[in-house]
Amino acid sequence: MRIHSYFIGLLLALACGLAGAQGTATWIWSPGDFEIWLSNRMQAQRVERDVAWPPFWRLYGHQPQVNFMRQVDLAGPEDIDVAAEGIYNVAIDGRFVHGDQRHIRIPAGRHTLNIQVYNAASPPAVFVQGRTIRSDASWTAGPRPGAPAGAAGHWNFDTPDNPPSRFRLPTREILPAAVTRGNGTVLVDFGRETTGFVTLKNLAGSGQVTLYYGESKEEALSEAGAETLDRFTLAGHHGDYMALTSRAMRYVNIRFDAGLRVGDVALAYEYLPVAHRGEFKSSDDELNRIWDVAQRTLELNTREFFIDGAKRDHWVWSGDAVQTYLMNYYTFFDGDAVKRTTWALRGADPVDMHINTILDYSLYWFIGIRDYYQYTGDADFVRSVYPRMVSLMDFVLARRDGNGMLEGLPGDWVFVDWADMPKDGELAVIQLLFARSLEAMADCAALAHDDAKAATYRQLGADLKTRIMAAFWDPQRQLFIHGRKDGNTNPLVTRHPNMFALMFGYLDDAQAAAVRRNVLTNDAVPKITTPYMRFYELAALAESGQQRYVTGQIKDYWGGMLRAGATCFWEQYDPNVDGAARYAMYGKPFGMSLCHAWGASPLYLLGKYYLGVKPTQPGYAAYVVEPDLGGLKWITGKVPTPHGDIAVYADAATIRVTGILGQGVLRFTSATAPRSDGGTIRKVGERRYELPLEGGKTYLVTRRE
Amino acid sequence: MRIHSYFIGLLLALACGLAGAQGTATWIWSPGDFEIWLSNRMQAQRVERDVAWPPFWRLYGHQPQVNFMRQVDLAGPEDIDVAAEGIYNVAIDGRFVHGDQRHIRIPAGRHTLNIQVYNAASPPAVFVQGRTIRSDASWTAGPRPGAPAGAAGHWNFDTPDNPPSRFRLPTREILPAAVTRGNGTVLVDFGRETTGFVTLKNLAGSGQVTLYYGESKEEALSEAGAETLDRFTLAGHHGDYMALTSRAMRYVNIRFDAGLRVGDVALAYEYLPVAHRGEFKSSDDELNRIWDVAQRTLELNTREFFIDGAKRDHWVWSGDAVQTYLMNYYTFFDGDAVKRTTWALRGADPVDMHINTILDYSLYWFIGIRDYYQYTGDADFVRSVYPRMVSLMDFVLARRDGNGMLEGLPGDWVFVDWADMPKDGELAVIQLLFARSLEAMADCAALAHDDAKAATYRQLGADLKTRIMAAFWDPQRQLFIHGRKDGNTNPLVTRHPNMFALMFGYLDDAQAAAVRRNVLTNDAVPKITTPYMRFYELAALAESGQQRYVTGQIKDYWGGMLRAGATCFWEQYDPNVDGAARYAMYGKPFGMSLCHAWGASPLYLLGKYYLGVKPTQPGYAAYVVEPDLGGLKWITGKVPTPHGDIAVYADAATIRVTGILGQGVLRFTSATAPRSDGGTIRKVGERRYELPLEGGKTYLVTRRE
Questions:
Q1: Which of A446, A460, B2, B588 has a 20 to 30 Å separation from B666 between CA atoms?
Q2: For the sheet containing A150-151, what is the strand order?
Q3: Is A353's CB within 8 Å of B59's CB?
């Protein structure tokens, strides 16, 4: 087993972005700097029609000066090439290098290299290429020489002429599905939701052009109502013209002055290259279409960062992000996107507000890091971001009330859900998220070798769970009540605390059964109406083995959107509303996002609870495969992991699984004694069986469901 | 007296930079942002020959997003013009303004205006011009809507087309005093120390040019030793060429390739416009030249900020700055330069190092703010910077040892003086500066209406003074000993704690007399050799009435530099060293700065202790004039104040004073009964008299010294 673990560790290191440390030079910066800078740039592009709308929360800047340091021990002298973004100097053992600062000879022996870079406009960054000395995560980055410094941040800027500040997402041209020309107008339909720079080919003449973007045709045609538009004026123009800003749309309504002629229209589709690793197919074609459209939805929202919506807000929201992380683990497995988003959400120090100003969104942020570690096993990232976890948790802890609980203080937004419910005082759901955050902190503190804080967080979490049960668990009704204000409990029952407690594993079997019975499957408890919280509700139901019910819910809700013509999943969907009225939200006729990341949750549900794949040790060092047909005739698919994809097929009579390196186990039910073509099946309960899986092998199990 | 105070308040408000609030629109930003950004830019220009040398301490950035807010109450609708540096939007009562964002009509009535600006590269700033609504200090600036916000920062950017990011010091052309041409060389002497962009007129041809700058001729001619140089390569150039960077020099040695011809050479002299308000003349011509050269020295170091030296470091150092502030109050009275320097030194939050990394430099920073308030009465600035005072003091307080005292911790630089003395453990001088800092904090907290913290700081200061006396005052020897380490006192006597205790007024009359006798005038106590600490030593001596001795010291030390050819005062001067060896420092042949701000201290000494003018209430609401001839036949001069200049003439027989608005009092000695042509002279002691001064009036007193 030892050699096993060793290989897993190696693979994890390779998979989790440490490639830079293995021999390739890459641009490095102070961790978080590039991500903060880029997220500011991206988020500041939001508009509401002709009004710029940067985020309303505090934005942090990158550090204008960074000191990069590395110890070397050279058998012989070595020449290095240095490139930097900013004013810089190089010091060897504390002495400046004079003369050529780009080509430097490091003498043989042990030396300390320092490169100090100043850059006010974009993150200080360096690229160093030598035979053995290369800029990568083996360098540290700190605010000044001698100050505490962590491993340098990096991504995929692997050539000296491709520095971080020039980052742009790639584009490729796509053509319209339909073009309708009128007098001074062109209406273009790209056939489905997309994102990019509208390009007017052979645009000639002088005058003003306005692009009204629409996720729906109605929006594009509503010149008074379209949420996004771009306007530009040309004089004596000849040739192609590309809009300056990438926008989301399915349609674009182009209006131009009489002095202009417009040729063809195309789109420079702007995208983050992702690997389509996750797969899902089943006997239900509608469900398959739902999976495909969900993947498209997630892909359009997986960009510089995980954003909430392609059109709106095009911002990074923590509550949305923590869900997209989980969907991502069952589709693209893009760990870099999770890391970038985590840095961007957090910003820098000092902390004087919750993430996105929302109390619950600070808490999700901690949980998202713990989730990331569970799926990727990337402890280096946890160690890198840990200091900012501590400072945010310090902020949170300082805001506890006399009961050691969190309630919304002046300036805090307590969101939970768009649902109509009391949000003041101590909400049970907030305390559960807080407890989970403290557990996440304890785990991450241990990874960062901060044992004292690990113990403190662990104890705080345990104490809080005790207080939660005492305050909010109703022993008579066997469920969690909603909250408490000024010492008075509110007997209202909401699904939110009950489903989180269930998902977090905070309940014993009897309590869990009671919650399922008394709340989750009780129609007398107000329904959850937002896809945002349905994510957790359906996950909690699936966690309780209610896949068959979940299948119906997915086909009903997401299938309903498809039947209403959706090409991506929406921010919100009410089957009782018809026509263009469906697109209204926030008091605006086209306020709703028609490509919203949280609408893609079937990706997670189908991967985790139907294909049934989940890590049981960080980074899939151990994992289970527990297929569940959920009422379908057959299901098949792949789930990506750091060690390759786990392939699953299941029907009532057979299960076929290809495992990965790691301690896998297949769990399944059978009414009769099952058989397999490899390994040894163990009976673990009534109708319940387990088969240990060996890496890279394919197992065929026959059973009777 | 009431009406008096009212006028003083009004004048103070006008004098102290609130002009912006009185009717002129000016560019505004979040306080400190512009100053931090500009100081980074300035300090990053330092070079050591061909190596960039930005500061080695942590640099902070500006906030990339700022929300500007103002409440208005309009009798009728008002049109405003808006300019901004960055992406921005305007909201009236929380609702975005659509359409034209530059020309906006505000409806009649009470409204809240918010302008949110995002700018990654330079400080977010706005300029608003309406009939009654104008951007000025009546606006607040904060990191986001609804967050705590302070009065907006501003300076003198009073037109919309002159935004802060385009700031440059003005220049004017000056011509050389002497030009020596050689083969491929031109040696230019500008006649005295100066700063600017070297301009090569009618430069023609192709090839490389190198400018070797020298504060001395020897430095300029030492191509291997000159501390600063600039190199550029031209191809087919025709016309004037101006160097890209402003440098300090008296000489520039221009070396150029054979393919180039160089015409005339000039300098675009770069300077901060200052008012030469302070004046001093006496019966001693040498002293008068010293005053003139000191003023020139201070002027060359009064720029974007108060810097330490024109050539080197061209950085902002807190210990140097706090002295230049005091010199400035007796010459230019440029309050804006003090404010800019204070912001630049402090940077932003979080605090994880001492200012300039130096323990004592954090302490001087607090004291400098209290001094600024004493001289200007500008409480608005104190309130603006107060939050950053608190966070720095929090950092300091967290670093106290078990005795409540400060000692150098790992990463701290304990500077005190270049002198050879123990600097580890608890130094008496550091604790005295700490006590003074706590008193400054208490005063500033009171101005910021933070009464709880004011009381805390007051108590901490009082406790610390008690501990200082118990630990470091030697009752037998009647003096302060140097320090204590690991509980063991060091009986060493240094001048430093003794002179600070005297200056801070921490001693009773008997103790003060003992310190003067046992330390300050005791040749057995090691001499102070740096002009940096001589500032305080001579001030303490003058504070004790030793002006006659001080006159000799000034003529000896500063007169010595003049006799050695100085055109500005040096970083250090040892009369025992001759020739070019005088210019060596830090192990480098021309490492020394020949125009160093701390060399200008006679400005302060002569203004405060000879002309004898000092505020006794903040902003010269009350002041004394206490002329002291210091052995000279006559002295005359002017001292600037917020309410105009105080003019003083004194000789042994007469004193003539023109007072300012404020409660002034002339104090003088006379062996016989004095007379005056106005007011009523009171006898206040043996040979000691006082005459109350009325604003704007001139008094002639006859006496016999």
A1: B2
A2: A95-96, A87-92, A109-118, A65-74, A140-142, A150-151
A3: no
| Residue B549 tokens, joined | 């001795």
Residue-level pLDDT at B705: 85
State yes or no: pLDDT of B4 exceeds 90: no
* Longest alpha-carbon distance in chain A: 80
Length of chain B equals 705
Using CB atoms within 10 Å of the CB of residue A505, give its burial: 0 to 12 exposed, 13 to 18 middle, 19+ buried.
Answer: exposed
User: In chain B, which segments carry CATH 1.50.10.10?
Assistant: 357-500
Architecture of domain A2-165: Sandwich (2.60)
CB contacts, 8 Å: B62 with chain A: 61
| A369 contacts: CB under 8 Å, gap ≥ 6 | A342, A382, A385, A389, A440, A444
SS3 of residue A79 by DSSP: strand
CA distance A598 to A539: 13
Taking CB atoms and an 8 Å limit, are B58 and A144 in contact across chains? Answer: yes
Of the candidates B54, B58, B146, the beta carbon closest to that of A147 is on B58
- In degrees rounded to 5, what are phi and psi of residue A325? -55, -50
Cross-chain Cβ contact A411/B146 below 8 Å:
yes
CB B532 within 8 A of CB B598: yes
pLDDT digits (tens, 9 = 90+) for A331-381: 999 999 999 999 999 999 999 999 999 999 999 999 999 999 999 999 999
- A284: preceding bond cis by omega (within 30 degrees): no
Asked if the Cβ–Cβ distance from B61 to A120 is below 8 Å, we say yes
CATH architecture of B357-500: Alpha/alpha barrel (1.50)
- Using DSSP's 3-state secondary structure scheme, residue B16 falls into coil
Peptide bond into A107 cis (omega under 30): no
Instruction: Name which of B555, B520, B525, B526 is nearest B538 in CA terms.
Output: B520
| Residue whose entry in the numeric block shows the structure tokens 């417009």 | A262
CATH, range A347-527: 1.50.10.10
Fold of A618-702: Maltose phosphorylase, domain 3 (2.60.420)
| CB pair distance less than 8 Å for A144 and B56 | yes
Helix pair A318-329, A335-346: axis angle to 10 deg: 170
Burial of A687 (0-12, 13-18, 19+ CB in 10 A): middle
A112, amino acid identity: T
User: In this structure, which amino acid lies at residue B142?
Assistant: G
Nearest residue on chain B to A353, judged by CA atoms?
Answer: B147
Mutate which of A57, A58, A315 to test chain B, going by most B C-beta atoms within 10 A?
A58
Q: Residue A391: name the closest of B411, B391, B350, B389 by CA.
A: B350
Kindly report the CATH number that applies to the domain delimited by B2-137: 2.60.120.260
Q: What are the structure tokens assigned to A433, written together?
A: 């998220």
Concatenating the DSSP letter of every residue in A636-658 gives EEEEEETTEEEEEEEESSEEEEE
> Within its chain, how far is the Cα of B624 from the centroid?
23
**Which CATH number is B612-702's, of 2.60.420.10, 1.20.1530.10, 2.60.40.2310, 3.30.420.40?**
2.60.420.10
- Alpha helices, DSSP H, located in B564-623: 602-609
Q: What is the mean pLDDT of residues B91-120?
A: 97
Tens digit of pLDDT for each residue in B579-627? 999 999 999 999 999 999 999 999 999 999 999 999 999 999 999 999 9
The CA-atom distances, in angstroms, between A396 and each of A361, A442, A485, B345, B513 are: 11, 15, 19, 31, 55
- Sequence ranges of chain B with CATH classification 2.60.120.260: 2-137, 171-270
Domain A171-270 has CATH 3.40.1350.10: no
Q: Quick one: tokens of B704?
A: 């016999």
